[in-house]
Amino acid sequence: MEIEGEKILRGSASQFYVAAELSRRGVVAALTMGNSPTTDILCTRPDGEGFVCIQVKTFRKGGRSCSVGLKAERNHGPDFFWVLVGLPTDGDNAPIFYVIPSGEMAVHITKCHTIWVKTPGRDGRPHKDNPIRSVRISRKNIDGWEIKDFMDRWDLIQLRLGMDPNRKLAVIPEDDDETDEESP
Questions:
Q1: Burial class of residue 46, CB neighbours in 10 A (0-12, 13-18, 19+)
Q2: 38: containing domain
Q3: pLDDT in tens, 7-48
Q4: Cβ-count burial of 124 within 10 angstroms (0-12 exposed, 13-18 middle, 19+ buried)?
Q5: CATH number of the domain residue 90 falls in
Q6: What pTM value is reported for the model?
């Protein structure tokens, strides 16, 4: 059984990973820290122009699906993105990211849920409608949608903000512990 605090910590870690990836790409990313029901990260260009909202959802790297909830059926517009973050369980590997526009997510989540409700479950019993919505990670979703094409698609956010997605990434030099000053 999972402790509630662990789930919150994983969610927070995912948001910080997303903000870091955006910052490396020159996007200003501000975490809402739970102060917005639909937006985890607000983004803009360094000059303050353009605006994008991001909802972050976490899954265990290697897992089969990511729960996104009922609000994923709503198209929040072209300035809204979902970022699904697969956190590694061993701590040694990097997370994986799927950057999905709201419209794309809404269409497929709605289709998948409609198909699921109409398809008999185990023992031929009908499925009961509920607010649970999820995205299959490692295989096709029930409507045939695969999210693999959205892996690391940070360029979608950069383009929406009017930025060059080919700009050089911010990289920390390997010799970052050395300084020009002499030690005492």
A1: exposed
A2: 4-160
A3: 888 899 999 999 999 999 999 999 998 888 899 999 999 999
A4: exposed
A5: 3.40.1350.10
A6: 0.88
45: exposed, middle or buried (Cβ count in 10 Å: 0-12, 13-18, 19+): middle
Q: Are strands 80-87 and 52-60 parallel, antiparallel or unpaired?
A: parallel
Enter the tokens of residue 24. 């490396």
Residues 6+ apart with CB under 8 A from 10: 58, 87
Number of structural domains in the chain: 1
Note the pLDDT tens digit of each residue in 136-164: 998 899 999 999 999 999 999 999 999 99
Compute the distance between CA of residue 48 and CA of residue 95 in angstroms, rounded to an integer: 28
Strand partners, 29: 43
- 3-class DSSP assignment, residue 119: coil
Place of tokens 């059984």: 1
Report whether 109 contacts 82 (CB < 8 A). Answer: no
Interstrand relation of 80-87 and 96-101 (parallel, antiparallel or unpaired): antiparallel
Side chain identity at residue 129, one-letter code: D
What residue type is 90 in one-letter code?
D
